[in-house]
Design goal:
The protein is an alpha+beta fold. The chain contains 8 helices and 15 strands. The structure holds N-(5'-phosphopyridoxyl)-D-alanine (PDD). N-(5'-phosphopyridoxyl)-D-alanine binds next to helix 6 and strand 13.
Length: 285
């Protein structure tokens, strides 16, 4: 079955799904994106993703490409046309097409929008979670506005590639003071020896992950103690458990950091329980 993409008002087979060479997303990475999990054909926590999209666009002074209700129809239609039951829907909005000049294009230039959807194998994800993943650490070298879900991801791409070349699945950025900020495409968490769940405040140099926000409710429901503060690389090495969160991985146990085993080197009990419980606390629409 050929995949379909929504591009600026039309549903097109991938072979014809193209954007203009002078799209500002292509020329300048001048745009934002969202990734939303699809589960049983429904979107997970879509209202939270839409709210973050609106915030990202607002911070960059890019207009919404269409009304929110219309956008929600497009997301669903793209999921439906690609027959995605379990997987991801991806949405990207750029500042539109204009002659390549750095300042914003003339007012009224319509933003560009692309939506794609793809299936993922839930049992493969469960196998990965049962084994846990390895992470490496890399120096933080991103811009200050990582709170905006911008498509400018070059440092993230380089960090992820470095992880891959070292046999790991994720890279954690470490700031100049030795504190972990977040992963190249996920938020970072540890559980200390005394059982506290530690994650960096969303106001300090990380993306406010939707999975992160929902997981805070799961923690509360499970009666776990949260310590929302930055943690160092050394604390992570000494942690009882570690894990990452994102729309594509939900809660993914981390079993090695820079080649050192976390805890006993197997996925932690708390991370595994949080993963199992997550979707009871998320909104499926
Ligand atoms: N990444 N931090 C970064 C840098 C991310 O790119 C992501 C998500 C997250 C987690 O956010 P959320 O829980 O809302 O997915 C944190 C997506 C999945 C991606 O780039 O594919």
């Amino acid at each position: 079955m050929s995949r379909i993409a929504y591009v600026n008002g039309r549903y097109l087979p991938f072979a014809q799904a193209t954007v203009h060479v002078e799209d500002r997303g292509y020329q300048f990475s001048d745009g934002v994106y969202e990734v939303c999990e699809v589960r049983g054909g429904r979107l997970v926590d879509e209202p939270l993703h839409m709210r973050r999209l609106q915030r990202s666009l607002g911070e960059l002074k890019i207009a919404m490409p269409m009304s929110l209700p219309a956008l929600r129809v497009v997301l669903r239609e793209t999921v439906r046309r690609n027959r995605v039951r379990d997987g991801l829907v991806y949405l990207q909005v750029s500042r539109g097409v204009a002659r390549r000049d750095h300042p914003f294009p003339p007012p009224g230039t319509p933003p560009s929008i692309v939506v794609t959807a793809r299936s993922a194998d839930p049992s493969a994800a469960e196998r990965t979670a049962a084994a846990g993943i390895a992470v490496i650490t890399v120096p933080e070298n991103r811009w200050e506005r990582v709170d905006i879900k911008a498509i400018a991801l070059l440092p993230n791409v380089l960090a992820k590639q470095a992880a891959k070349e070292q046999g790991a699945k994720e890279a954690w950025f470490v700031d100049p003071d030795g504190y972990v900020t977040e992963g190249s495409s996920s938020n970072a968490w540890i559980i200390s020896r005394d059982g506290k769940v530690i994650t960096r405040p969303a106001e300090q140099g990380i993306l406010r992950g939707i999975t992160r926000s929902v997981l805070l409710n799961v923690l509360r429901a499970q009666g776990l103690e949260l310590d929302e503060r930055p943690f160092t690389r050394e604390e992570a090495y000494a942690a009882r458990e570690a894990f990452v969160t994102s729309a594509s991985q939900i809660v993914m146990p981390v079993v090695r950091i820079d080649g050192r085993p976390v805890g006993n080197g197997a996925p932690g009990m708390v991370a595994t329980a949080l993963r199992e419980d997550f979707h009871r606390h998320s909104e499926l629409i």
